[in-house]
């Protein structure tokens, strides 16, 4: 059993062999269909020559411009802008390319060069100038449309690499016209860029002027609203120098509120003191009140009352209660008691009155404080609204001043801004035509013809079902290949030696006693093949009889160089005997039974018993009989002879017979009773035998 290494070596060795076989097969297909390849190449080259002869020479002139990142500002000062990114640069260049290809720029070029109505332009573009209008369009409108379309169709715009240079080319049959149009395109692009810059500046100034007017109106409205509100509220705006930290002026609500808060504290303290005095007077004895004790009148009454009480006590020691003096002393004491009580009640009532006055005073102060607080809150609201209006005025004033300064700057820069696109090279009048390029055209025509020819050869080879190898012969008609004869005028004799040796094994008894040699179509080389096989068998010491049964176009007598007068046709009709018509061919071991006279109906002679008798007789004298029969397709002679011969040998021309017709021929022979032992390929192109050692094993 072979190891893995041997299998790998065999595979490696088989690759070059298979590649060589594939290359050889491709070369064989090309050589076989070389007429198709040569004709296709010749037609393509001829088409290239015709194209060159019929083409009008075109001249291309090219101008170039440079696109800058940011145009120069006023007085050459660069405007402060953000750094451009690669994507921004690419977008900028693509935008300029689209501007170049735009219809507006083409119309500008047409106006500048007065191309509408110019016969020179139409002659240079090799088109016919319109002579009338079309539909609702006038003749000039149609001509203008044609000029614009011609300019746009023949414009060539290029971006060399990643540079900022644009090449503007124009192609026409007039070299001077090409240069003029290319330069006009460059000039129009520069003017369009300057115009866009100027118009954008005008629009910006116009926009700023509108914004400035709006800001001025807003500022006036804000100042008017502030003044109206201040007048309606009866307040004055604080001066701009007031920072908010200075104390409020005298007489303001804040000062009054502070004073009232101090008064409320004092009133509360007075009310608490009066309340304490009143509570003390109401709950305790009147005589014990300090105010009563410290009162001079009350002290005098109390002294007199003490004296009167002392007198009553003294009088009671000596007199009874009914005594007049006792009654008078008691009356006087009661009067003093009433007087003291009345005075104490008066003092107590004064405490109550003081308390009520303190409470009322505190309430009045609180009411005044609430009123002032409401007034202060209203003043704070008015102050907030005043601050809002003041800030609105400041904002509009700042916006107005900023827009005014920006407008002044743009107005000062107007007319000084440079364009983004700058001229680089002017288009020169070309001295040589740009097309047609003879060398390039012929090269492409030749390469195109070669490619188309190879494609045609490949298609023909792929879809060609002609027999070209032993594999196709076995696949399509199920016949073994006995050998192949290379294409040439006279193949070497040693080529047929292996075929003769193969015939020695054609039957179980060895060499078949009778072999019919035929082909599907005429002209495939069956007669010459039979002639060569007879000579090869004779060299193997075999006695061979060649019967020329092709009584329609006999060739064996000419191949052997004999001019007989009688043959198989006379033998079949009984006009001659066998020994009289069989002649020596001149080749040792080979005898010939020629055709003789060509009969009007060969098939009728072949079906007679005389043919069977002839074959039975000659089998005893010769080792084998080679019968040359007509082609199978279109005639019945070969089928009749196949039923009488022991085996049949089919001659197939390489690359001519297709599987459909060849299969029909084989089927007809087999239905007639013929035993086909194999086929011989004739006129083979390439190597006679192609065998892959590694593939075959």
Protein architecture, described:
With 697 residues, this protein is α/β, with parallel strands linked by helices. Among the domains are: 27-54 and 435-461, no CATH class; 251-412; 468-682, 3-Layer(aba) Sandwich (Rossmann fold). It has 23 helices and twelve strands. Helix 22 (659-671) links the parallel strand 11 and strand 12 (676-684). The protein is elongated.
Strand-residue fraction? 5-15%
Number of strands: 12
Shape: elongated
Low-confidence stretches: 4-8, 72-81, 240-246, 688-697
CATH architecture descriptor name of the domain at 468-682:
3-Layer(aba) Sandwich
N-to-C CA distance: 14 Å
Query: What name goes with the CATH superfamily of the domain at 468-682?
Result: P-loop containing nucleotide triphosphate hydrolases
Overall mean pLDDT score?
79
Percent of residues in helical segments? Answer: 55-70%
- Quickly count the helices: 23
Report the radius of gyration as a whole number of Å. 69 Å
Query: What strand order characterises the main sheet?
Result: 5-12-11-6-10-7-9-8
Largest sheet composition: 8 strands, mixed
């Amino acid at each position: 059993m072979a190891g893995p290494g041997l299998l790998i070596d065999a595979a490696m060795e088989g690759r070059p062999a298979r590649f060589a076989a594939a290359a050889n097969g491709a070369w064989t297909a090309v050589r076989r269909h070389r007429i198709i390849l040569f004709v296709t190449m010749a037609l393509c080259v001829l088409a290239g020559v015709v194209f060159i002869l019929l083409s009008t020479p075109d001249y291309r002139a090219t101008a170039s411009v440079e696109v800058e990142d940011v145009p120069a500002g006023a007085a050459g000062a660069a405007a402060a802008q953000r750094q451009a990114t690669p994507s921004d640069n690419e977008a900028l260049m693509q935008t300029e390319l689209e501007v170049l290809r735009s219809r507006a720029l083409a119309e500008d070029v047409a106006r500048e060069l007065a191309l509408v109505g110019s016969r020179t332009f139409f002659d240079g573009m090799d088109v016919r100038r319109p002579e009338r209008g079309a539909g609702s369009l006038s003749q000039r409108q149609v001509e203008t449309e044609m000029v614009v379309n011609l300019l746009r169709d023949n414009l060539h715009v290029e971006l060399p690499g990643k540079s900022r240079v644009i090449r503007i080319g124009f192609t026409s049959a007039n070299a001077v016209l090409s240069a003029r149009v290319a330069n006009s395109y460059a000039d129009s692009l520069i003017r369009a860029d300057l115009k866009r810059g100027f118009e954008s500046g005008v629009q910006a100034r116009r926009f700023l002027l509108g914004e400035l007017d709006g800001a001025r109106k807003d500022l006036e409205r804000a100042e008017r609203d502030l003044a109206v509100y201040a007048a309606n509220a009866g307040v004055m705006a604080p001066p701009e120098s007031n920072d908010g930290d200075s104390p409020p002026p005298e007489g303001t609500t804040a000062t009054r509120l502070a004073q009232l808060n101090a008064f409320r504290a004092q009133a509360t303290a007075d009310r608490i003191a009066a309340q304490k005095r009143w509570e003390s007077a109401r709950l305790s004895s009147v005589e014990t009140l300090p105010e009563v004790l410290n009162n001079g009148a009350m002290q005098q009454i109390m002294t007199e009352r003490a004296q009167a009480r002392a007198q009553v006590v003294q009088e009671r020691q000596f007199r009874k209660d009914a005594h007049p003096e006792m009654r008078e002393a008691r009356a006087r004491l009661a009067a003093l008691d009433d007087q003291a009580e009345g005075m104490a009640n008066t003092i107590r009532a004064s405490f109550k009155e003081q308390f009520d006055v303190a409470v009322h005073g505190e309430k009045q102060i609180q009411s005044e404080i609430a009123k002032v607080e409401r007034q202060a809150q209203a003043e704070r609201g008015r102050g907030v609204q005043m601050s809002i209006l003041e800030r609105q005025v400041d904002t509009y004033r700042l916006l107005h001043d900023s827009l005014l300064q920006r407008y002044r700057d743009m107005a000062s820069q107007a007319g000084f801004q440079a364009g983004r696109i700058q001229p680089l090279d002017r288009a020169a009048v070309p001295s040589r035509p740009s097309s047609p390029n003879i060398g390039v055209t012929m090269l492409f025509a030749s390469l195109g013809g070669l490619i188309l020819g190879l494609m045609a050869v490949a298609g023909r080879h792929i879809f060609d079902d002609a027999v070209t190898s032993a594999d196709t012969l076995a696949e399509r008609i199920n016949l073994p290949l006995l050998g192949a004869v290379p294409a040439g005028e006279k193949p070497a004799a040693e080529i047929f030696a292996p075929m003769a040796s193969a015939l020695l094994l054609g039957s179980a008894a060895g060499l078949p006693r009778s072999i019919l040699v035929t082909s599907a179509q005429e002209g495939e080389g069956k007669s010459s093949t039979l002639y060569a096989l007879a000579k090869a068998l004779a060299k193997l010491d075999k006695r061979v009889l060649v019967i020329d049964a092709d009584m329609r176009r006999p060739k064996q007598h000419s191949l052997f160089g004999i001019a007989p007068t009688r043959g198989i046709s006379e033998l079949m009709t009984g006009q001659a005997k066998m020994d009289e018509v069989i002649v020596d061919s001149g080749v040792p071991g080979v005898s010939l039974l020629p055709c003789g006279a060509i009969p009007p109906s060969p098939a009728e002679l072949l079906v007679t018993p005389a043919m069977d008798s002839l074959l039975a007789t000659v089998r005893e004298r010769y080792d084998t009989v080679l019968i040359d029969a007509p082609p199978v397709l279109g005639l019945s002679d070969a089928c009749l002879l196949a039923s009488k011969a022991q085996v049949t040998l089919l001659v197939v021309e390489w690359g001519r017979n297709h599987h459909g017709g060849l299969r029909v021929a084989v089927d007809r022979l087999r239905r007639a009773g013929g035993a086909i032992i194999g086929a011989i390929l004739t006129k083979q192109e390439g190597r006679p035998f192609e065998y892959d050692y590694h593939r075959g094993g």
